[in-house]
Amino acid sequence: MNPLAGCLLLSCLLFASGLGAVLIRRNAIVVLIGIELMLNAANLNFIAFWRYGPNPEALTGLMAALFALAIAAAEAAVGLALIISLYRRHHRSDIDVAEELKG
Amino acid sequence: MNAVFALLAGLTLGAALAAVTLRNLVHAALCLALALAGLGLIYIHLEAEFVGLAQILVYVGAVAILIVFAVLLVRGAELPEGRVSRAPWWGAGFTALFAATLLWAVVRSPVIRQATRPAPTVTVRAIGDQLMRDYVVPLQAIGMLLTAATLGAALIALPRRDPNSSAHQPTPP
Amino acid sequence: MDFLAHHVWLIPLLPLVAAGLIAVTPRPQRQFASSLSIGALAAAFLLATLAFAATLAPGYTRTISNLPWFTAGDLTLHWGWILDPISAAMLVMITFVGSLIFIFSTGYLAEDPNYTRFFGFLSLFAAAMLGLVIANSLLVLFVCWELVGVASYLLIGFWFTKPAAAAAAKKAFITTRIGDLGLFTAMLWLNSETGTLLFYDSGRGCLESAALTSLVAQTTVAGLTFTAAISLLAFWGAAGKSGQLPLHVWLPDAMEGPTPVSALIHAATMVAAGVFLTARLYPLLSATPGAEGLTFSNTTPALITIAWVGAATAVFAAVCAVAQHDLKRVLAYSTVSQLGLMFVGVATGGPAVGLVHLLTHAFFKALLFLGAGSVIHACHHEQDLRRLGGLRRGLPVTFAAYAVGMMALSGVPILFSGFWSKDAVLHGALAWPASKGPFVLCVIGAALTAFYMMRQMCFVFLGEPRGVNASDAHAHLPPHESPRVMTVPLVVLALCTLLLSAVCTPFWPALEHYLAGPKATPPSVTAGVWGLLVLSTVATATGLGLAWFAYRPVRGSASSADPLAERFPAVFGVLNRAFGVDALYAATLTRWGRGLGTAAAWFDRWVWAGLVDLFHTLGQFTGWISGRVDEDALNGGFDAGCEATRWSGRRLSLVHNGQAPRYLRIVALGATVFALLLFGWMEQK
Amino acid sequence: MPSLDQLPLYLKDQIVALFPTPLQPWVGALIAIGTLCALFPALFAFTTVLERKTLARIQNRLGPNRVGPAGFLQFAADGIKSLTKEDIVPRNADRVVHFLAPFVVVVPPLLALAVLPIGRNLVALDLKETGLLYFFAVGASVEVGVFMAGWSGGNKYSLLGAMRALAQLISYELPLILSALTVVMLTGSLSLVSMVEKQSSVNFGGLYSWNVFTPWGALGFLLFLTAAAAEANRSPFDLPEAESEIIAGYFTEYSGFKFALFFLGEYLGLFAVCGLGITLFLGGWLPPFTWLNWVPSWLWFFGKLMCLIFFFVWLRGTLPRLRMDQLMQFAWQFLFPLTLINAFVAGVWHFTASWNFALRWALGAGLLALAYTLLSRPFTQAFPRRTYRFAP
Questions:
Q1: CA pair distance B24, B16, nearest whole angstrom
Q2: Alpha-carbon torsion (C305, C311, C314, C318), positive or negative
Q3: For B48, which of A3, A24, A62 is closest by C-beta distance?
């Protein structure tokens, strides 16, 4: 076991907790929090593999992490705007109120 | 795996678990901020100072604030409905299954048994050079994406000028 | 000035940019639009003057700059600009006359609601015309040629709410397109034979001896060399643009456009593009097989055709002009006639002779048109000669300027440039070895020109006021002199008309010498010149005298009748309808076209539609058969299948309850399965 | 004997040398931390008195004048008072968050102060790669504390104050970072120490080339000061604690020592942002002229700091408070575009390094003046010049 294993395990657990929030919780904001956690778990993997990977001089992992950071920020902004819009329409912020796509 | 990392990992994981389980949404958002700040510290511990500080700047300074704003705007500090969705056990099962798969993959993976190498030295200048040379197209695309996200978020969140759905906001005389 | 010679494209760029800006200018920004387009053209004039100065250097021939445009297979097309004496003189003339006409337009169209658009179109036209004269490639020339056609269409139809204007615009566009077909064919032929459309390309251009030698060596139908055939096709295009027989019909109708447009496009510049084209292509036109494979002569079949067509048009249009009642139509026919004269000049005396007349004509015809515009403006858009009169008192400046233009056009000796340039044409025609016919026709045309101009003068300016001006019933205001912006361009043009005569005389033919280039031998003053001067003066005097005799104002009488029409009503009627060419076209070409269309429609309806109906019936029959089979044999099974599908669809749609958590769970399950497969596969390896 | 300039460093080395080698790095760090934690709160104490007295002078009063010589021990009285007061937690409050908030507000400014070079070789934490980013990242954490304080009280006014504060902090963070970015561009480093060293080249007349002596630096400094005033909740941007509207803003529900902690946090934030301004634009610990080098460098830093603080106090005594919409409009329609243009001009400055100095200056200043004129037009049109009429 090397330091990379710690990072990977932490990343797995973070991802699992985020996924749990997405799958189990009802409130849309908590779902968004879960998504952020999952994104960050992936980011941790980028950094860990950059640090302990075979070719750290290439900076690929760092770059991916930086870009993921920006994308996560954009995602949060749009997601929260969607939640606010959802709340305006249904006066609730639960994820299961949006069911217009029912088959 | 040294003590500092273990400490930070525990902090991060605990805060993350709190963020997804707490009933109070503001607490959840604050715990998320803590978890992400802990993650930033882990990055710094992994010699990625720049990304770690950027992580703190972006998540603690912006995303966490954004989330608490949203929480207050949807008046959801205390959950009015049930905490969990209609079929929580299915979700829990899937989560456990997925987590087990990932953990199994990590534990079986050969990479965690290889010897590690010393920390590379990365200057901010190198990161800037890479961003402006090899990654300039993604950088521009990210700029476009952020602009579009800003505009889109503003558009989505703007109140509709619809008399039917404006029961909760005062109509202009 | 070497820079400008290589970047001569800057000159058309200025009005083009102005046109682009005006296109996005809101309509109320009138002042901005007119200032911008006048400023751009004035700046272009300055640049053109500088370019002109560059060409004055001794021994200057031409500066060319070519660059490839695109390559398609073996074919590489080039852009190219040329600055030689011909294009330099044209540049100066177009920008100068154009600027004056732009300025005039601000007064003439001061009340028009579409003022902004007008200046946009004018700028577009100026850009295209300037591009045309500096083109060093037949392709670029053709592009600009079509652009001036578009601008002309837009401007003739500027008052498109008037049905006559819309019809005239359409007519002009279609007629010139018929001509352009010839030019286009010539272009394709030239390109396929020589592989280039550049005029001059340091030995490889299509007007240079290598290409011409190979062209004259080949012959086509009726023993015509390739050069002659291509030249005739190109002249067909030039005739369309310059209103030569038989494609002249559009030009008189084009007078429906605003008068500044008539002055700029249908007198001074665009219609002269045909003459310019023949001058530009002169090496091609005059090439003939000779001792070393190639020699030049002014009696090639193409030039003979041009000379005869030009001379015939000159007389034909002059005769028609005698019997027109519309102020502008007279000038239009006069333009057609003068363009014919220019073609005679190019064909018989060489391009320099024709172009000298083109340049002088541009000035005095623009002057005449602007004078007519001033009159029309003063008389509340009254254009009928018979209803105008005695305007010399109300419009003294216009009268004086118009008189200068009229005398230049008529060929009054000594002071007026028109006399000298026309004389050069006559001189060339007289010295032409092929035939003396064109010369005779031109002299007759000159006399007729003097006649109709005197007639117009008598009607409009001399005598007593009549028509609108006399009757108090609808005299809103007495005729008033036009504002300063309109009279100043008139005066400037009149001065130019006078001054230009200094460089056109056979005693010091500076302009002709300049245009012909340094290699040409200067024409010398011989006894024949003196004789010709006397002959042309006599012809002019005869025309003027006869007209004065017929139309001289009678004191106290304000008759609006034309004495000639009263004396010879039948002849006058024929002339007034311009020998009925329009009616002839309507009766023949148009009717044939319509008949062809009707026949095609009939064929369509009965033959093709019958076939379609037949297949339709057959199809219906087979459909009925298969329908029976379907209903009875297949449907039962199919219905059962449908029911099963619907049932399963209903079951499956339960998955899609529209709730994100369920979707997310399914996604998670899918991801898990995928991850398991992936890692399992990696384990296998 | 060390020079006066390096005396603090010498003392530290002497103390560290007393300990066994394995402990020495820890001891050195503890000394640095201890110094920071003592020095700036002491400065805070002094500043409160100074501010009260200066404001009183501006408002034609005496100010504190009872405790100690000329009232200068007032801070001690205040401190004792706040320590002995009852610590009230509202029944409605969220107790945990309510308890944590003051610390989240105080700790980040202290952390931020660590990277400021307060003298030659005197910097607690020299981050060679990420100094400025560290400063801003840590500074951003204050926002969380502000929100925690405002929300946990369970009071409408404190929540409003927190919302105002957050909106203002986020809006003004952008011009703050962007105006600092110009210096980063020209230095080519995020290290605050190298930024100061970059300004140590000497111009004619022995004048150090502070960044404020360039067109972009001059405007950038002004923009930085404006944004800094907003970041530190100083007048005229002190809406989050506008006492006439929302009592004390986000810390309305605090009393006693926690209230004092908020005050401390605010002032530490002010010191940090002023210190950053000094480092970025005013040459850090550098004297203005070479012949003033004999004055110890840390004295220069603190002198400049006091000048800036005095400037802010003066501002508070002079300017009225803005309205919320004016605040936002000013940030987004004026400051933000102007900082962007300033960054552009800094780029122009960088690429015209070979030009004549006066020409270069004129170009930069001209561009900025043009941008300023164009951007300020909506504001001058919206608020026409007033004419005052006084009673005879």
A1: 14
A2: negative
A3: A62
Q: Are D142 and D110 in contact (CB under 8 A)?
A: no
Query: Does A37 lie at the interface with C, CB-CB under 8 angstroms?
Result: no
* Cα-based distances in Å from C341 to C278, C306, C512: 13, 10, 16
* Rg value, chain A, Cα: 17
C246: Cα within 13 Å, side-chain hemisphere: 8
Whether residue B64 sits in one domain with residue B127 = no
Spatial neighbors of C538 by CB under 8 A, at least 6 apart, are none
Instruction: Calculate how close chain B gets to A102, using CA atoms only, in Å.
Output: 16
How many Å apart are CA B62 and CA D228, to the nearest integer?
18
- Rounded to whole angstroms, the Cα distance separating C531 from C538 reads 11
B73 and B1 assigned to the same domain: yes
**CATH at A73:** 1.10.287.3510
Which of C652, C658, C665 lies closest to A102 in CB terms? C658
D148-176 per-position pLDDT tens digit: 888 888 788 888 888 888 888 888 888 99
Q: CA C205, C206, C209, C214 torsion: positive or negative?
A: positive
Within a 10 A sphere around the Cβ of D60, how many other Cβ atoms? 6
Query: Exposed, middle or buried: residue C409 (CB in 10 Å: 0-12, 13-18, 19+)?
Result: buried
pLDDT interval class at C16 (50, 70, 90): very high
Task: Give me the number of domains chain A comprises.
Answer: 1
Helix, strand or coil, per DSSP, at residue C300: coil
A19/B99 CB distance under 8 A: yes
pLDDT digits (tens, 9 = 90+) for C247-272: 888 888 888 888 898 888 888 888 88
Percent of chain C residues past pLDDT 70, beyond the cut: 94
Domain count for chain B, please give it. Answer: 2
Inform me whether the C-beta atom of residue A103 falls under 8 Å from chain C C-beta atoms: yes
- The least confident of B128-137, C133-142, C225-234, C554-563 is C554-563
What confidence score (pLDDT) does residue B86 get?
Answer: 64
Task: Please give the pLDDT value at position B166.
Answer: 44
Name which of A7, A24, A83 is nearest B84 (Cβ-Cβ).
A24
Is position B17 within any domain? yes
Interface of A with B in 47-66 (CB under 8 A): 47-48, 50-52, 56-57, 59, 62-63, 65-66
Identify which has the larger pLDDT, D242 or D47. D47
The answer as to whether B150 is a domain residue is yes
Q: Which domain holds residue B60?
A: 1-79
B62 lies in some domain: yes
Task: Please give, rounded to a whole number of angstroms, the shortest distance from the CA of A32 to a CA of chain B.
Answer: 9
Q: Give me the CATH number covering residue B53.
A: 1.20.120.1200
What distances in angstroms separate CA C278 from CA A80, C283, C287, C307, D54, one per listed residue? 73, 9, 13, 12, 92
Whether B19 maps to a domain, the answer reads: yes
B60, D141 contact by CB (below 8 A): yes
Residue pair C208/C237 in contact by the 8 Å Cβ criterion:
no
Alpha-carbon gap, residue D106 to D279, rounded angstroms: 22
User: Using the beta-carbon criterion (under 8 Å), do B60 and D97 form an inter-chain contact?
Assistant: no
Task: Let me know: does D151 contact B30? Beta carbons within 8 Å.
Answer: no
Would you call A19 an interface residue with chain C, using a CB distance cutoff of 8 Å? yes
Among candidates A44, A47, A76 on the partner chain, residue whose Cβ is nearest the Cβ of B63: A76
Q: Which chains touch B (3 or more CB pairs under 8 A)?
A: A, C, D
Co-location of B73 and B127 in the same domain: no
**Interchain contact, A20 vs B160, CB within 8 Å:** no
Predicted confidence (pLDDT) per residue in C213-237, tens digit: 888 888 777 778 888 889 999 999 9
To the nearest whole Å, the CA of B129 is away from the closest chain A CA by 11
**How far from chain centre, in Å, is Cα C174?**
12
How far does the CA of residue C636 sit from the closest CA of chain A (Å)? 28
